[in-house]
Amino acid sequence: MNKIATAVKATLTVLLLLVVFSTTAVAQEKDKFSEGAAAVTTQMKSKLSLNDGQYTKVLDINKTFLQQAADAKAKGGTRVVMAKAMKAIKDRRDKKLKSVLNSTQYKVYKANRTANYKKLRAFYEAQ
C-alpha cells in the first residue's frame, strides 16, 4: 500500500510539473506576440497618426497576424505551401487594416508595408 501511494504521489508531481511548464511556455509565447505587435503598432501609430481607437484595433490585428504566422510556421510544409499560407495571412491583415485606416493612412501604410512585415517577421521567426 505504501509503494502505491508513493508511486501515485510521484506521478501526480510529474503531471503537475508538466502542467506548470507548459502553461509558462504558452504565456511566454503570448507575451512575445504582444511585445512584437506593440512595437510595430507603436511605430505605425506615429507614422499613420492613429487615434486611440485605431491603435487598439491595429494592435489586435497585428497580434492576430503574429499568431497566425506562428501557427502556419508550426504546421510546416513545403516552401510553396508556406508562401501561400503567408500570402493569405498578409492579405487578411491588409483587408482588416484597410477597414480601420482612412484612405490617407492606408496609402502611407502601403508605402511602409515592407518595413512593417520585416519587423513582425522578426518576432514570429524567433518562435
Outline the structure in words:
This is DUF4142 domain-containing protein. Residues 1-27 form the signal peptide. The N and C termini lie far apart (46 Å). This protein has one domain (31-125). The chain is 91% helix and 0% strand. The chain is mainly α. It contains 4 helices and no strands. It has helices spanning 2-48, 52-75, 79-100, 103-125. It is extended, with a radius of gyration of 20 Å. Mean pLDDT is 79; it is low at 22-28.
Quick structural gist:
With about 130 residues, the chain is mostly helical. The protein has 4 helices and no strands. Mean pLDDT is about 80; it is low at about 20-30.
Summarize the helices and strands and which ones pair or pack.
Elements lengths: L1 H47 L3 H24 L3 H22 L2 H23 L2
Helix pairs in contact: 1-2, 1-4, 2-3, 2-4
* Class from secondary-structure proportions: mainly alpha
**How many DSSP E strands?**
0
What does the radius of gyration come to? 20 Å
- Judging from the principal axes of the Cα atoms, what is the shape? extended
User: What is the CA–CA distance across the termini?
Assistant: 46 Å
Number of helices: 4
Q: In percent, how helical is the residue content? A: over 70%
How many domains, as an integer? 1
Round the mean pLDDT to the nearest integer and report it.
Answer: 79
Order of helices and strands: HHHH
Give start-end ranges of low-pLDDT stretches. 22-28
Protein name: DUF4142 domain-containing protein
Keywords: Signal
Signal peptide: 1-27
